[in-house]
Amino acid sequence: MYVFGREKTGGFLNCIKRSRLGPVRVMVPNLLFALLLVGILVAPGAASVARRELAAAASGGSPHSREAMRSESTPRTRVALELGGTVTVPCSLSAAVACRLTPQSVTFMAAGKPVVANASLQGAQCSCDVPPADAASSAALEFSADNRTWPKKGSAVVDYYATWSPSLGKRPYLSSDTTAQVVVVTDVAAGPGPLSLSLKTTDGKEVALANGTIPIGVPFAVSFSLASFPAEYDGFLTLTIAGTPVPLPPHHLRLVRVAPPPKSLATFSWLDYSRRSIMVNDKPFIPVGYYSAYTGAVKDGPPGSIKALLDDLTEQAAQGVNVVMQYDQSPGGKRFSSSVPLTLQPHCFAKL
Fold it and tell me: Could you report how far apart the first and last alpha carbons of the chain are, in Å?
């Protein structure tokens, strides 16, 4: 939910005050819950729509998908993103020469660029040669008889999944670390197993794993020694998996090893892939902040705007804010210059 407005009102908007720095747009983290709440208050019909969208998001779907994707009768098919595959669904077209997959986003951002692939028709069944994908996601599938018009007849949903997702335990490792970990998550479709891993350097040298056999369907960590790697190293390792129903392409994992930070360094950060978190001084970093455009207003602001901006951020940091996420990853520009600048009052952070 976004909080806009030029006047102070009750509730959460009391946490907004005017600022000469630029406008701030605040997003409540649970956007879908806010949509549900608004739907209940505004209209009974809107509430039922919001509930369906919330349920779609909870099940891995997209609340912003097309109506065909939200329909319970729409066929859904899982496809391994590493391999792609053939998806066949009922349709009523007279011919099918092409199929189109439109990636659906689970955020408020726009959906991805559509991908067109070959299709065929056999009786009342349309088949699509679904290509591999870069990441696990859902895509709306539509068929066309002429590769120009895309009727919704015969539409379906393709759910891409990763058969296996490996990563190194963290980055960087320190030269004082003696072992490293490969964290692997496999899908149940990788079975029935047993599955085994092999790890090699870019020049083909085998890296011994403590346990090359991994379970199916659960995260599992496999360790290996760093004794054969230089104290400072930055290179790629090739990880392959065997035992799957069909051969899967390998993964290339970046291994970085650095000297321990000097004691004079106040802050040292690293990525903990085993917990999917950022570590700062060996403690998990929990982002607390909001989306904003007001930092971009400095460009068109009066003299002293930069100092005022830094003072404002320093004040907010003292209240626990450690992240300001810039809209569009660029300065706000003139499209925000006519708006009344807003910022959060410090006492409100205790309420978030």
Answer: 14
Please report, as a single letter, which amino acid is at residue 266. Answer: A
CA–CA separation, 332 and 111 (whole Å): 23
- Residues 336-347 have pLDDT tens digits of 333 434 444 444
Per the structure, the count of domains in the chain is 3
Which residues form the domain of 263?
A: 164-280
pTM assigned to the model: 0.64
Per residue in 40-66, pLDDT (tens digit) is 444 444 333 333 333 333 333 443 444
Buried b (16+ CB within 10 A) or exposed e, 154-168: bbbbbebbbbbbbbb
Q: How far is CA 17 from CA 21, 157, 236, 336, in A?
A: 11, 45, 50, 17
Calculate the average pLDDT of the chain. Answer: 74
The residue behind tokens 């709306």 is 140
Residue 189 lies in a domain: yes
